[in-house]
Amino acid sequence: MRHLLWIIAALGLAGCATQISVPVSGQFGNGVPAAGQATARTSGEGDFWVQAPGGKRCSGTYNSLDTNPTIVVPVTCSNGARGEIVVTRQLNGLSGTAIGKLSDGTTGQFVFGDLKFEQAFGAGGKAKSGG
Prior knowledge:
By secondary structure, the protein is mainly beta. The protein is 13% helix and 47% strand. It has a single domain (2-119), classed as Quinohemoprotein amine dehydrogenase alpha subunit, domain 2 (Lipocalin, Beta Barrel).
């Protein structure tokens, strides 16, 4: 039901804005911080990118109209590495987490929207377990 309300609200705003962008922040598995942006468009085209300062840039595309709370998105990086990220969105559809692994063995943990890294992964940078 909440997803339906979010879709109705998004469609109602479609006349006002054709896209919405949110910040992405987190780290690659070796502790290197990275930041970027995710953009969802009312056309259904979504894209994201993250980059470490002076390091690789990774990006991908997704269907921004997909209402599933969790989606798997292919990612390609500037150093040639490829992989997948698992994106889990909160009920508002504008915040959530992304975890992934690349072909070069690099892992990553990211948050987007108004979610803070420590809320999702704890101060030590590891995913919180349900308890």
